């Protein structure tokens, strides 16, 4: 797309401060030029709102909001905004000049997939930006490869800069909803969250979903859903995509990364991990990714009402599987009772293959069962499989210990236990069962 040079001319001085030097590019809302700020003698980028949009009050407000939203953040991964104003009826904002390429340009040049380590590094940095934006209740709403810049660093790795906050909203405010016309879906269809497609109230998890789509695209070479915009919107709202490993089985995508992506793409925002959790999980997968993050005080995760066990520290959350645990890797784990996608991801992260069990009839065989609530329907269901069973019980339910033993429960884990303790009990029950089977043979 050739930039529209008719808006400003080479050599023209904007607001007595910015001399236009050359066009850089353009998007749906505006045109970007390279300029020199005369009073400070520095190079900047200047973005001009298209004249046909400048007469639209909604477009003008969005353009101004882009400047204010980005200026609110002090983060090396967010493009720096210097100024905002009007020149001869044209709205403009000036920002730092980014020397690099967009993630979209990189993906087009690659024509297939990025190395796993590079994809994790890029995603970790974006999650770090989201951690900062969401901490002040700011939601980007339009994360996509076109809005992510990659700048070469002294470390030889990409430094990520997130741009274009034109659709950003403060989740605690109603401004964003007032700036959305009735029936209008804001964002880019291939990266829209289900709640965006349905016109629901929007929160920070819409950015997590979009980031999941971006990570999916980097490691598989394609977005989760593809097709005409109307079809895309319907798929984002209702369809479940193939997992990355299913889409590209030949690429040997790590199971833990596969599970994290699918958790980020969960339809319900309540069951998606937040940006902090995504960042932590990615750092556990590739600690080297932390080299590109800005040092900061350790961020504390928020309480998670849908979590069945407490998070514990990072080593507990995503601990590596030691050699002693190799014998339980890949074990099929049936889950009876309520559980969210976050906890399913945590189980998969420990090397299990978890799946929900149907309460009406036994499904495919499993090696061990986890019961998240010791109700009779789940206990009866587990009995039909004749495999070791681990039950999570509240303290006031432990008085029914005899009844649980009668059902043949192998291990009982109190609710609120650390994740490591739950995993240890599951592995212990599984090993005990396997040793017994060997002895019988």
Q: What's the CATH topology label of the largest domain?
A: Transferase(Phosphotransferase), domain 1
Relative strand content: 15-25%
Mean model confidence by pLDDT: 81
Question: From the helix content, strand content and strand pairing, which structural class follows?
Answer: alpha/beta
Described by the principal axes of the CA atoms, the overall outline is elongated
Number of domains: 3
| CATH architecture name of the largest domain | Orthogonal Bundle
Fraction of residues in helices? 25-40%
Distance between the termini: 71 Å
Which terms would index this structure?
five-stranded parallel β-sheet; 441 residues; Transferase(Phosphotransferase), domain 1; 16 strands; Rossmann fold; six-stranded antiparallel β-sheet; alpha/beta
Describe the model.
The chain is α/β, with parallel strands linked by helices. The chain has 3 domains: 13-96, Phosphorylase Kinase, domain 1 (2-Layer Sandwich), CATH 3.30.200.20; 101-292, Orthogonal Bundle (Transferase(Phosphotransferase), domain 1); 318-440, Response regulator (Rossmann fold), CATH 3.40.50.2300. The chain has 16 helices and 16 strands. The protein has helices at 51-54, 57-72, 103-110, 116-135, 175-178, 194-197, 205-220, 229-238, 244-247, 255-264, 275-285, 314-317, 341-349, 376-383, 401-406, 419-440; strands at residues 13-14, 18-26, 30-37, 42-49, 81-87, 90-96, 101-102, 138-139, 148-152, 158-162, 169-170, 332-336, 353-356, 368-371, 389-393, 411-414. Strands 1-2-3-4-6-5 form a 6-stranded antiparallel beta sheet. Helix 14 links the parallel strand 14 (368-371) and strand 15 (389-393). Helix 4 (116-135) packs antiparallel against helix 7 (205-220), helix 4 runs antiparallel to helix 11 (275-285) and helix 10 (255-264) runs antiparallel to helix 11. The chain is elongated.
């Amino acid at each position: 797309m050739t930039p529209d040079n008719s808006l400003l001319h080479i050599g023209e001085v904007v607001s007595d401060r910015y001399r236009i030097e050359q066009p850089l590019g353009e998007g749906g809302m505006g045109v970007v030029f390279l300029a020199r700020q005369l009073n400070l003698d520095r190079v900047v980028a200047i973005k001009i709102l298209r004249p046909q949009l400048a007469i639209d009050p909604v477009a003008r407000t969005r353009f101004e909001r882009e400047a204010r939203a980005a200026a609110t953040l002090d983060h090396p991964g967010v493009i720096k905004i210097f100024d905002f104003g009007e020149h001869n009826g044209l709205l403009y904002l000036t920002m730092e000049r980014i020397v690099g390429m967009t993630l979209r340009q990189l993906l087009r040049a690659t024509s297939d997939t990025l190395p796993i380590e590079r994809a994790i590094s890029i995603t970790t940095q974006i999650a770090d930006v989201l951690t900062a934006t969401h901490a002040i209740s700011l939601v980007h709403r339009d994360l996509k490869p076109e809005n992510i810049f990659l700048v070469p660093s002294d470390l030889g790795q990409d430094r990520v800069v997130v741009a274009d906050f034109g659709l950003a909203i403060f989740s605690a405010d109603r401004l964003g909803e007032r700036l959305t016309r009735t029936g209008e879906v804001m964002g880019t269809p291939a990266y829209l969250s289900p709640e965006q497609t349905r016109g629901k109230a929007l929160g920070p998890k819409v950015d997590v979903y979009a980031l999941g789509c971006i990570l999916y695209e980097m490691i598989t070479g394609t977005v989760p859903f593809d097709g005409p915009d109307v079809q895309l919107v319907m798929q984002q709202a209702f369809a479940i995509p193939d997992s990355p490993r299913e889409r590209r089985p030949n690429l040997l995508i790590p199971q833990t990364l596969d599970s994290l992506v699918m958790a980020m793409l969960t339809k319900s925002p309540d069951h998606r991990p937040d940006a902090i959790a995504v960042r932590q999980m990615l750092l556990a997968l590739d600690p080297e990714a932390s080299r590109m993050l800005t040092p900061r005080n350790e961020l504390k995760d928020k309480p998670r009402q849908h979590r069945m066990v407490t998070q514990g520290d990072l080593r507990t959350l995503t601990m590596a599987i030691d050699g002693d645990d190799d014998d339980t890797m890949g074990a099929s784990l049936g889950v009876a009772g309520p559980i969210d996608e976050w906890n399913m991801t945590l189980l998969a992260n420990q090397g299990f293959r978890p799946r929900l069990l149907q309460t009406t009839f036994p499904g495919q065989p499993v090696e061990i069962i986890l019961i998240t609530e010791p109700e009779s329907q789940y206990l009866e269901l587990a009995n039909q499989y004749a495999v070791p069973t681990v039950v999570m019980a509240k303290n006031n339910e432990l008085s029914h210990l005899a009844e649980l033993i009668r059902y043949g429960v192998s291990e009982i884990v109190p609710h609120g236990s650390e994740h490591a303790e739950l995993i240890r009990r599951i592995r212990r029950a599984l090993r005990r069962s396997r040793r017994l089977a060997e002895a019988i043979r």
